[in-house]
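FAQ

Q: What does a record look like?
A: Structure on top, sequence underneath. For example:
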């Protein structure tokens, strides 16, 4: 059972903690109808959740983040970053291509228009040797034009991650 805890802040943000068993994540979202740095926020915050998941772990966290934001009254778009490897590589990992097609069909890919629409963006990624996934980084890097035009100014942002390490044994 997922549990959602939220706490309002003075600056027009609400922090959320979403937890289930051994998983826990935190993020910020815009509070409804509060002035924020000189402009009026819509009565319903628009939140974009962009994630990359290969096996479904980060997908489950992204769904929980989305549910928490919706419960708080936000309009939410959930999008999965595209794979950047060829299908021949995906075919070497059982189920990868099928899961990828399912998630892209269910959520769609994030676009610059999604980012412009959002009051806040929440990024989710597995870790790859301590870094964000290349797939999510490629999407973030594609936002340089919006950044240059100042269209990312004033947007709240947050992130969540999931990581695991295979047990390594000396033989």
């Amino acid at each position: 059972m997922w549990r959602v805890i939220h706490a309002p802040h003075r600056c027009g943000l609400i922090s959320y903690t979403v937890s289930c068993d051994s998983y826990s994540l935190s993020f910020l979202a815009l509070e409804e109808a509060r002035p924020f740095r000189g402009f009026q926020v819509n009565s319903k915050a628009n939140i974009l959740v962009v994630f990359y998941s290969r096996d479904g772990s980060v997908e489950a966290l992204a769904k929980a983040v989305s549910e928490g934001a919706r419960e708080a009254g936000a309009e939410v778009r959930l999008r999965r970053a595209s794979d950047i490897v060829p299908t021949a590589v995906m075919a070497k990992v059982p189920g990868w291509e099928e899961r990828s097609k399912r998630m892209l069909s269910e959520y769609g890919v994030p676009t610059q228009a999604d980012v412009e629409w959002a009051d806040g963006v929440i990024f989710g990624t597995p870790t790859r040797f301590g870094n964000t996934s290349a797939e999510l980084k490629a999407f973030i890097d594609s936002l340089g034009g919006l950044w240059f035009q100042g269209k990312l100014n004033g947007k709240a942002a947050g992130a969540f991650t999931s990581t695991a390490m295979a047990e390594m044994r000396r033989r």
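Q: Is there anything notable about this one?
A: Confidence is low (pLDDT under 50) at residues 1-5, 31-42.
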